[in-house]
Specification:
The complex is a heterodimer of chains A (about 160) and B (about 400). Chain A has about 160 residues and is an alpha+beta fold. Chain A folds into two domains: about 40 residues, no CATH class; about 80 residues, 2-Layer Sandwich (Alpha-Beta Plaits). Chain A is built from five helices and six strands; from the N terminus they run H-H-H-E-H-E-E-H-E-E-E. In chain A, a hairpin with a 2-residue loop joins strand 5 and strand 6. In chain A, helix 2 packs across helix 3. The longest helix of chain A is centred in the first third of the chain and has 14 residues. In chain B, the strands form three sheets. A seven-stranded mixed sheet of chain B has the order 2-8-7-6-5-3-4, with helices on both faces. Chain B has a three-stranded antiparallel sheet with strand order 9-12-11. In chain B, helix 5 crosses helix 9. Chain B starts with 12 loop residues before the first helix and ends with a helix. The chains are: A alpha+beta (about 160), B alpha/beta (about 400). At the A-B interface, helix 1 and helix 2 of A face helix 2 and helix 11 of B.
Chain lengths: ~160, ~400
Amino acid sequence: MDELLRLLRKNALESPHNLARMLRLTEDEVRRRIAQYEQDGVIRAYQAVVNEDRLDLDRVRAVIEVKISPEREGGFDRVASRVARFDEVESLFLMSGTYDLLVFVRGATLKEVAWFVSEKLATLEGVLSTATHFMLKTYKDQGVLMHVEERDEKLKVSP
Amino acid sequence: MKSSRSRPDFVAPHLRDVPRSGIRDFFEIVSQREDVISLSIGEPDFVAPWHIREAAVFALDRGATSYTANLGLRELRQAVAAYVRRSFGPSYDPDTEILITVGVSEALDLAVRAVIAPGDEVLYHAPCYVSYAPVVAFAHGRPVAVPTRAEDGFRLRREALEAQVTPRTRALMLNFPTNPTGAVLAREDAEEIARFAVERDLLVITDEIYSELTYEAERVSVVAMPGMRERTIFLNGFSKTWAMTGFRVGFACAPPGLTEAMMKIHQYTMLCAPVVSQRAAIEALRGGDRDRDHMRAEYEKRRNFLHAGLNEIGLPCGLPGGAFYVFPSVAGRGLTSKEFSLRLLDEEKVACVPGSAFGSAGEGFIRCCFATDIEDIKEALARMGRFVRRLST
């Protein structure tokens, strides 16, 4: 992967000036490449990774395994894209193995998520079964540890 | 009643003359301050990769708490042999030519003590890491500095070597990539140094602890040059490559006679490297390539950033080809490197090591380590910029 993308994935707020210094490029070149990535749809969005456990929020997250029957034309894609459009769905993947879709869902309450699964998801044409798992605690999300580990202190000056 | 003047001094005279490390002096000043951003460390800011730590934990779990063979675990020596062959070229026999040591620091001491007789001269290029001259002095040898210059990218030139060599010269110590300058060894320089060593019949002790942190340049070791294997003690370790400084494990590769001589000292003074650390080292060699590459890529970006930033604020420096130090000039402001560092620490709370800690050839420079979090580097640069602007008004 382009080092520029790697840096942006780590810190999307990094300024073009700093990125240029790190990559030994001109600032203009950095801006041009970012614009190109955005235009090509390589960069889809810039988001903050938030540790929601630290906020006093009413929210529930769940992972749902969904079995669906593939269609003659379009395979899994038609059902998947219908599922993806729900606001409740945060992430959606087609999987190998004993189920087909893995759906990450968010709601304000357990009831709300349960309602979404039973009313919206399970009733979709082509959906055969669902199995819902509620998330209890986030340890790491999108490559970011949510709890700061205590580290052994290093010397300030060393050989 | 005895006065303090007549109190007997039990310290051996050849030790009395060796100064304390300038780094340690500085450490004591810095450690009394708070909120200091430190560019004066000499170790990675990363923690050793988890799979390596886990291997150490697993070893403890299984009861790995004993001595090992003096040479080190055979499994580790075999892994080292394969690694050295793959990465540097020469083949070493794990049974007779590889010694696992307590860091490269011990290996360096063993190498010098194994070959230096009282009065022998040892060449080393300067500015250089703080250990080289003292280790020679401890062995009753005479350390002879061979200066390298910033204008020349701190390369080691044959002319400079020729100017210092005498009939008493026995060995040459090399450290490329170099702490503190970040200089790397170009192929033509390695060839020239090898020819010099062969013609003068010198032993070469090469400390290549930073070899894995070579950036765009070709990685060249003097041991791979013609005629060098039989007259080289090759030293390397795990500390810098895999952020394992506290594990204290390194190794020496040399022909059987030299390895045996080093082993003799090691056997009577150290016995063996810590077994848990040796287990961790095996894991590093077995599965650590990706971590190494990842850390190197990180350092490279930070290097670029710090190099550009220092030049922008008026502290000129070359782009270091290896290690994790930038060595900018602070000359021309009426301050010694120590005064510059102390004032920078006092006024802006940024710690850099004065170049004079690395010998007189380092005067006029400071060592800035970029194995430091990028956010800290940014803040340090902002503060240093302020400081330099104030000095020039």
